[in-house]
Each structure stands twice: as structure tokens, then as C-alpha cells.
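Q: Convert this sequence to C-alpha cells.
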Amino acid sequence: MLCGGTSAARPATEETQKIADEVKSQIEEKEGKTFDVFTAVEFKTQVVAGTNYFIKVHVGNDEFVHLRVFRSLPHENKPLSLHSYQSSKTKHDELAFF
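A:
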């Protein structure tokens, strides 16, 4: 693990899907629409004072969004937060730091 750098992209796990599901309503509110499909497909992590998750999510048809979700350190007891996101992505767009 490289402190401050992002990990290599890995296939999404059950935990990754739970993280995506937890911030789904936040992105739906920002985008002004509801996603019938919201499936995490891959992710990267970045260790900071907590963890940033960069998650590629399939949202239907050939559309994808990239999420940046922050998980604070356990002792801070804060909820996950959608830091930022990128829409209009494709399956082949690289999941990169943003």
C-alpha cells in the first residue's frame, strides 16, 4: 500500500457495492435523476487521513459514473461522503484520481 497514492484498479467487491449504495441517493440528488441500475464494477483506494474510494459504477445502458467516496477514520464515527463524481463515462474510461 502506498500512502497518498492510489492503488491499482481491482474488481469491485461486496464492500465496494455497499459503499456505492450508501452514496447512491447523494449522486441521484446531484444529477437530478434516479438510477435503476447502480452496479460497482471496479475500484481503487487512496489512504489519506481516512480512505478515498474511487469507484466505477454501471448506471445502465452504456453509461458509467466514477465516484470519489471518503471514509473517515473509525474513531471519527462519520458517515461516508460523496466527495465528487464524474458522469458521462464509458466502460473503457480509466478510473483515475480526480
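The CA atoms of residues 27 and 47 lie 23 Å apart.
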